[in-house]
Write a structure and sequence with these properties.
The complex is a heterodimer of chains A (about 260) and B (about 400). By secondary structure, chain A is of the alpha/beta class. Chain A is built from seven helices and 13 strands. In chain A, the strands form three sheets. A nine-stranded mixed beta sheet of chain A has the order 11-10-9-12-8-1-6-7-13, sandwiched between helices. In chain A, strands 2-5 form a two-stranded antiparallel sheet. Chain B has about 400 residues and is α+β, with helices and mostly antiparallel strands. The termini of chain B are far apart. Chain B is globular and about 80 Å long. In chain B, helix 6 runs parallel beside helix 8 and helix 8 crosses helix 10. Chain B folds into three domains: about 110 residues, Acyl-CoA dehydrogenase/oxidase, N-terminal domain (Butyryl-Coa Dehydrogenase, subunit A, domain 1), CATH 1.10.540.10; about 100 residues, Butyryl-CoA Dehydrogenase, subunit A, domain 2; about 150 residues, Butyryl-CoA Dehydrogenase, subunit A, domain 3 (Up-down Bundle), CATH 1.20.140.10. Chain B contains ten helices and nine strands. The chains are: A alpha/beta (about 260), B alpha+beta (about 400). The complex binds flavin-adenine dinucleotide. The site of flavin-adenine dinucleotide has 21 residues of chain B, from strand 1, strand 3, helix 9 and helix 10.
């Protein structure tokens, strides 16, 4: 089974709020010093799902990331967890790519890698939380996609996929090749082993530019108008009353006025 | 996500070293720390972690089994992160990797390597290292345990004391004297638990390293096969070379214990208020925290340099003594000082500080006491050996 996993390196979501800053003029997030970026957590679930499928059915896993040079670390982490090969698309023209452009360049990268049975992505990236790239990518490649995925089984050339819905999940049969966007319910990503880390350290990651893949950064669909950290204001209103019963009644009235209850 | 590495001077670790450090930290924070206070209180080693240590490749990480081993700094960082959890975890891994797997790999026969190393790396076989005796701690060369050949095997007699992992061990590397042409020569024997005449008594009522299993090994006409002897080494060079390996790990490990104390005290000081303001705002508290940060940073640099020297093949036992001595003292002082910041709360197991503080009393003592390392270094710089009298 040939599996491709798309991985994004993101700002560590555990970054303390006090250290999170944006440059409003440049409309960019300022990376906090001393806190290294990490693999998007849902992508770690996708990596884990891929490695489990490889353990069950054999095959080969290629990891693809669009990002800066630092994203090499994200690819190496995937390799240390059991993936086989890595491809980094590093191109300044795509630094602020929107979901469409990202899907476009990933589609070209996937075509350059060759045949595949399954593409796994995380259901969304924790930096912008847009959840657009996986479906866009599947559309561009003309293959079926399912999101958000909580479980995958392979029987022959068909996938049985557990898809999360509001109060539970549904089970879908999907022909391969297909794209699945994996959610955290699917698994608990493993720690890389020491052997895996050492092997990943020695492994070479291919690096390509968009030009190498024959795509350019046009067709942007999203314009970022303003980027800012919203101010959270809190007001305190004391509810008074002569007796506890009266206080409770006044509280209930206020809550109803505010349409909380 | 594991908490970030304290790295005030922004020392650059390689991506692989960072990955090792983060992985072991995540493992310790998620799987070991939730158990460790209870284990310490109960006087129990968390055996359930042994297969996990093995699966992650943390047992004997530098030993090339199927693939090349880890670099020295990565191995050191493993010790640092394990000991940031508890000295008992690092002690387990040090004994298994540096004191048993290392000598088997370096001095063992091919049969011994095949019999023990894969199982020890995965954690299905636990080892221990028996050098110290009741009456011979700092002067192990005067050990009384002896082995003599009998038929096609060996018979061992003696008592080893303070042996880490002994109560759990499947195999004990016992150092014993053998008469070789009229001279006593120290040799290593791989004695399997269950050998006739082999008995372990657990050491109870410890007030330090309570989450580590320590035992006394009694050898009473203990009979082992002829191929139990380590063929590749004779004399005290054998055990001493293992100790150099383990002391290297300690120089890194205790930095982890000190970090845990510092981080705990810093967080506490920022949230604990007296006189209506956080105690971190008082100059005396800041002086303690800054001293700790400074000492830990110095300890890190010493450890990192040790790693570089080891990978370059230039590390001397004296340099390891310097680092073991300096960093153990550093960690103990940091732990005591940080304990005073937590004051009353500092004596509780709810915080890691007191546990580390009392653990470090052992680490200060074992693998060559602070004083013995002083004398090793003293002899090195003066050319005069003080310890032999
Ligand atoms: C929890 C624990 C686990 C251990 N695990 C192991 C293990 O797995 N395997 C193993 O073989 N051993 C182990 N040890 C033993 C440890 O290595 C010894 O305790 C240590 O070497 C010191 O020996 P001792 O306790 O007999 O002290 P002693 O040698 O009796 O020393 C007592 C004091 O005298 C000082 N002293 C001794 N000689 C001199 C001198 N010439 N000049 C100046 N001062 C001197 C010492 O520094 C010390 O302060 C362990 C010990 C502990 C506490």
């Amino acid at each position: 089974m040939n599996i491709i996993v798309c991985v994004k390196q993101v700002q560590d979501p555990e970054t303390p709020a006090s250290q999170f800053r944006v440059d409003e003029a440049a409309k960019k997030v300022i990376p906090p010093p001393g806190i290294p970026p990490t693999v998007n957590q849902y992508d770690a679930n996708a990596i884990e799902a891929a490695v489990q499928l490889k353990e069950q059915h054999g095959g080969r896993i290629t990891v693809i990331s669009l990002g800066k040079d630092t994203a090499r670390d994200a690819i190496k982490q995937a390799l240390s967890m059991g993936c086989d090969a890595g491809l980094l698309i590093d191109d300044p023209a795509f630094e602020d790519a929107d979901a469409y452009q990202t899907a476009n360049v990933l589609a070209a990268a996937i075509k350059s890698v060759g045949d595949y049975d399954l593409i796994l992505c995380g259901r969304q990236a924790s930096d912008w939380d847009q959840a657009q790239v996986p479906q866009g990518l599947a559309e561009l490649l003309g293959i079926p996609s399912v999101t958000p995925v909580a479980g995958i089984e392979v029987t022959g050339t068909t996938l049985r996929v557990k898809r999360l819905i509001e109060d539970g999940y549904e089970v879908l049969e999907v022909p391969m090749p297909a794209l699945l966007a994996v959610s955290n319910e699917a698994n608990q990503p493993r720690y890389p082993t020491l052997k895996g880390i050492m092997a990943a350290a020695r492994a070479k990651v291919d690096v390509k530019s968009a030009a190498d893949l024959g795509v350019n950064a046009v067709g942007r669909k999203v314009q970022l108008l303003r980027l800012y950290v919203p101010k959270v204001e809190s007001q305190i209103e004391w509810i008074t009353g002569e007796t506890p019963e009266e206080q409770a009644a006044n509280l209930a009235r206020r809550l109803r006025e505010e349409r909380v209850i | 996500m594991p908490s970030p590495l304290l790295n005030y001077l922004d020392w650059e670790l390689s991506p692989a070293q960072q990955s090792v450090q983060r992985t072991v930290r995540a493992f310790v924070e998620e799987e070991a720390l939730p158990l460790i206070a209870d284990c310490f209180e109960a006087g129990r080693f968390p055996k359930e972690l042994i297969p996990r240590l093995g699966a992650l490749g943390l047992l004997g990480p530098t030993i090339p089994l199927d693939g090349p081993g880890a670099d020295a700094t990565s191995a050191g960082l493993i010790c640092q992160e394990l000991e940031r959890g508890d000295s008992a975890l690092r002690s387990f891994a040090s004994v298994q990797g540096s004191l048993v797997m290392y000598p088997i790999w370096r001095y063992g026969s091919d049969e011994q390597k095949a019999r023990y190393l894969p199982g020890m790396a995965s954690g299905t076989i636990v080892g221990c290292f028996g050098l110290t005796e009741h009456d011979h701690g700092s002067d192990p060369a005067r050990m009384e345990t002896r082995a003599y050949p009998d038929g096609d095997g060996w018979v061992l007699n003696g008592v080893k004391m303070w042996i880490t992992n002994a109560p759990l061990a499947d195999v004990a590397l016992i150092w014993a004297k053998v008469d070789e042409e009229g001279r006593d020569v120290v040799r290593g024997f791989l004695v399997e638990a269950g050998s006739p005449g082999y008995r372990v008594n657990e050491v109870h009522h410890k007030l330090s390293l309570r989450a580590s299993a320590t035992g006394e090994i009694v050898l009473e006409d203990c009979r082992v096969p002829g191929d139990a002897i380590l063929p590749g080494v004779r004399g005290m060079r054998g055990p001493l070379s293992c100790l150099t390996e383990a002391r290297f790990g300690i120089a890194f490990g205790v930095v982890g214990a000190a970090m845990a104390c510092y981080e705990s005290a810093l967080e506490y000081a920022k949230s604990r208020e007296q006189w209506g303001r956080p105690i971190a705002g008082f100059q005396l508290t800041q002086a303690k925290l800054v001293d700790a940060l400074e000492w830990i940073t110095q300890g890190q640099l010493v450890a990192y340099q040790l790693g570089r020297l080891k990978d370059a093949g230039r590390l001397t036992p004296q340099q390891v003594s310097l680092a073991k001595r300096a960093n153990c003292r550093m960690a103990l002082e940091v732990a005591r000082s940080m304990r005073s910041i937590l004051a009353g709360n500092g004596i509780l197991l709810a915080y890691p500080v007191f546990r580390h503080m009392v653990n470090l009393e052992t680490v200060f003592t074992y693998e060559g006491t602070h004083e013995i390392h002083t004398l090793i270094l003293g002899a090195d710089i003066t050319g005069l050996e003080a310890y032999r009298g």
